[in-house]
Amino acid sequence: MKIKLIGSLLLLAGFTQAQQRYELSAKQAADFARQNNAQVKNALLDVQIQQQTNKEITASAYPQINANASLNYYPNVGIQTFPNFIAAGTYGVLKDEGVLSGSGAPITTPSDFGFIQAQFGTKFVNTAGASLQQLLFDGQVFVGLQARRASIDFRNKAVEVTEENIRANVYKVYYQLAASRSQIAILDANIANVQKLLSDTRKIFENGFAEKLDISKLEVQVNNLLTERQKALNNISNGYIGLKFLIGMPIRDSLILTDSITYNDIRSGVFDAMQYNYADRKEYQYAELGKTLSEYNIKRYKLSKLPTLSLSSNFNYLRQANNFGFGGQWFPSSLVGLNVNVPLFDGFAKNARIKRAQLELQQNVNNIENLKLTIDLDVQQAINNYTNALATLEAQKRNRELAEQVYAQTRLKFQEGIGSSTEISSAQTDLQTAQNNYILALYDASNARIDFLKATGKLQ
User: Fold this and answer.
1) In a 3-state reduction of DSSP, which class is residue 362?
2) How far is Cα 153 from Cα 148, in angstroms, rounded to an integer?
3) Predicted local distance difference test score (pLDDT) of residue 82
4) pLDDT for 283-327, tens place per residue?
5) Which fold has domain 20-60+138-306+347-455?
6) Between the CA of residue 207 and those of 201, 369, 421, 425, what are the distances in Å?
7) How far apart are CA 1 and CA 258, in angstroms?
């Protein structure tokens, strides 16, 4: 039992030590996500994958050197049949020398000498050597080399698009939690006020100037406020979990938000961004790079119609023998060749590839034009939403201030004995509603501000 207890304590101690504490501003939280969010990390890996692809393309322009060795054994050396040229040559010599046959007559050359079967080769053939291939000209490879930088830029821009989307979401969740913290502070203040009023009412009741019902109503208000506070704390806890997941932070780690959200924060720095350019949007930059790559694709397919030129060479040593081994005489052989491959007809496949690439380029152009309209739409909607959110925030700010004044006056009247518990309860409810509406308006305005900055390409 002791061993189990010690083991549990050690495990708990290790878990506690594994926890880390982070105090992050909104920008620091977004930067944390840039390094740890899974989507961003995968986008960065796409850049590295493209880099390796580029190296593969570059390798096509380098010499290709290979070594080779072989050992072949022929249990039955192949037999070849060929005309009997040996006999024909022999008869020719005999006739030229005037040799007579056994009967003393001149030798007569037969009309058919027949065939000879003979084995050519040995049972063992050893070879060892090296070959070199060098591409001298291939239009597709050269276009691939030219497109390397654009392909890396394309992948990097995809990373930026992903980062911006994650950043916007991080800001929204972060400021929602910041607004929720303000809600907790307001609830704590309301609880303290009602508890103070409850304490004062009990004293007034003891002196005979209040009813038991007044105390009960205030106790209900306190309990309701405490319940609402607990719900808010639970929502905040879930919000922290969601934010940790979004930025790629282990759930067990401790996260402290250092930024708050205020009325002035929401209004600052936005109206400076009213002027916008399409090129400020990451998505537009990404689409333009995609168009550039499509243009390279067309060029690549067009150059595939040109001949390709390559240099080939090899150097080998050859051993032939009827016994197994590596000793004996090795004979060298070498070759240097220039190869030209001229495409003549491929069933119009190259033309089809060129046409397809041109159509894909036109799709990219259409998408860019549509993206411009989308950006205009996003900006206009963001302006409208932000303007309406600010107007709502202004109205809720005034309502909250009025509700605070009404509650203060009603409470004073109640304490002086000229106000009823119904009035103070109604004023408290109205104040709480106004405060909650202000917090919601604050959060909505914050979201509208983030959407506007993202729509104009100014989100940092």
Assistant:
1) helix
2) 9
3) 76
4) 999 999 999 999 999 999 999 999 999 999 999 999 999 888 888
5) Outer membrane efflux proteins (OEP) (1.20.1600)
6) 10, 79, 17, 21
7) 45
